[in-house]
Amino acid sequence: MGAGAVVNAGTAGAQGWSASCSWEWPVSGSLSQGYHAGHDGVDFAVNVGTALHAPTSGTISVAGPNDPGGYGTYIQLEADSGEQIQMGHLSETWVGVGQHVEVGDQIGATGNTGSSTGPHLHLRIH
Q1: Which fold does the domain 6-125 belong to in CATH?
Q2: How distant, in Å, are the alpha carbons of 11, 18, 68 from that of 87?
Q3: What pTM does this model have?
Q4: Domain-by-domain residue ranges, the chain?
Q5: pLDDT digits (tens, 9 = 90+) for 47-80
Q6: Which residues of 43-79 are buried (b: 16+ CB within 10 A; e: fewer)?
Q7: β-strands 100-101, 73-79 pairing
């Protein structure tokens, strides 16, 4: 699936599952590294400047080159459904702190900033 492919997610409640949000892949690219000890997310191999899309709706809590943890320029999205999503190693951010975004909105561009061995998107959801 590429960027724009929507996945409906849900939450478990007393009456079973119900759809509560939509998610999509944030970029069109190949998964280049999965989650494992020492790597707290997944990486997508993409060229510098590839459009980054909001994977779900939510509010931006961090946007810019201010990460002390190695992500370089990054965006942190507080999802309306409760998750916290971090997208790192970006070349540009096109959103500001406090801005609400919808699933699929273009929010930045991928890059090779921070502790990076090559152009990619680092995606972490928790």
Answers
A1: Glucose Permease (Domain IIA) (2.70.70)
A2: 23, 27, 14
A3: 0.79
A4: 6-125
A5: 999 999 999 999 999 999 877 778 899 999 999 9
A6: bbbbebebbbbbbbbbebebbeeebeeebbbbbbbeb
A7: unpaired
